[in-house]
Specification:
Chain lengths: ~230, ~230
DNA sequence: GTCTATAACCGGATAGAC
DNA sequence: GTCTATCCGGTTATAGAC
């Protein structure tokens, strides 16, 4: 669970509390002012530490983002736990999980664009496809594996192997759409989620049709070769 | 063709040449050192103007990127012209066009990551989905419309209406993959292009099957509603 | 060896004189 | 349209405190 401790230095009690204060201040300020408008200096002031101290715990502003990922992910897991243990229908599970993602992230809607773009950079220390994010990424993908395996849907085994990864990508697509969504109550994103999850589940059930089998196999072979090659 | 002139100030001869010098210097330096490592100061020095002058022509570093888009797009159009007038097979047209994209962009492979990420920001002045990029975006989408309409493929009319937009998105996906591709001669990207273009064309031809018709209609209605809502 | 702090560096962006 | 001077914020160097 606590992967960060393996990377960041905060073994002592004193360090723990400073680190938490800095992250808490960052979280508050991100919400109040947005990501770019929040300066490392302002974070340090609100946390009651010096600028240098902030950099002791978080080597860069983007490392605060990585912590933010993890924070949101834990919240998300807590929110979806009841759903995953109760619901067996794949469409409902998927819809619920993805809806929960955007609900969990909602307080950060204004910031999400800057964050997304800064981590989209392959050179970013916290690029979602990069090594630093690997532990968290694997956890999220594992969560989607459970969404599928815990359902009563019949999924061809070759598809089942790649589906969690594909759903993780799908989630990122939805997040990027949500970032642009200015509609009241984020209704447009919710609508897109409902439509796409339905569509995905339908396509999964169609994947076994003889006419589609060839394409499915080729597509999955491609996904597999891509997934293997990167990391 | 010269959309930039409507937006950027360079009506006089003198201005023209300064502007060109600045853009040329930027292009060189981007290739030599990458996007982030290239400072506005270095660009100004190489162009033989002051820092302030550079900002007179390009309100931000990202506006150089917009010009870069346009520059690459013109190159791309020139490269694919013969193919589009000769070839009628949709798969071959699509494959050729997408291959040409990455070939045209190849000199900037090292820079592309930073550029991509900086424009992925919804707050970016040159976000591909934003109003500033609209003219160029529409040109690219129109180009994909020609890729489809100039082929001998039979495409259901509802799909034909949205296909150019979808192919533009597909192209962006390929570009993002290419950014991460470190393989010799970019062979992995080429392989992915060959596979995916084949797959796309096959799916288009399957779209008329009765079992798929319902999903196709729903998917296209969704795409249409999304495309209408944004801009 | 862990934590904190101050001062400086660097580069994107801006103001305003000519 | 061109320049110089300056701001501002992410980052780094480095010195001292526990």
């Amino acid at each position: 669970m606590n992967t960060a401790s393996a990377v960041e230095p905060h073994r002592n009690k004193r360090g723990e509390s400073s680190r938490a204060a800095i992250f808490g201040a960052a979280l508050d300020l991100f919400q109040e002012r947005g990501y770019e408008a929040t300066t490392m200096r302002a974070i340090a002031v609100r946390a009651g530490v010096s600028l240098g101290s902030s950099y002791h715990y978080f080597p860069s502003k983007e490392h605060l983002v990585l912590e933010f990922y993890r924070h949101t992910h834990e919240l998300h897991l807590a929110v979806i736990a009841p759903l995953l243990s109760r619901e067996k229908d794949l469409a409902a599970r998927l819809r619920g999980v993805i809806r929960a993602v955007i609900v969990t992230c909602e307080p950060f809607h204004g910031v999400a664009g800057s964050i997304f773009s800064s981590v989209a950079n392959p050179a970013s220390a916290v690029n979602p496809f990069g090594p630093t994010s690997r532990a968290l990424r694997d956890e999220v993908i594992a969560m989607y594996a459970e969404v599928v395996s815990g359902s009563d849907a019949k999924v061809p085994s070759d598809l089942a192997a790649e589906l969690p990864l594909l759903l993780w990508l799908y989630q990122m697509g939805i997040l990027y759409f949500w970032i642009f969504d200015r509609s009241q109550g984020r209704l447009r994103t919710l609508e897109v989620i409902d439509q796409t999850t339905d569509l995905i589940v339908r396509l999964i059930s169609l994947a076994n049709l003889p006419v589609l089998r060839g394409s499915r196999r080729r597509a999955l072979a491609l996904v597999r070769s891509i997934a293997e090659g990167s990391h």
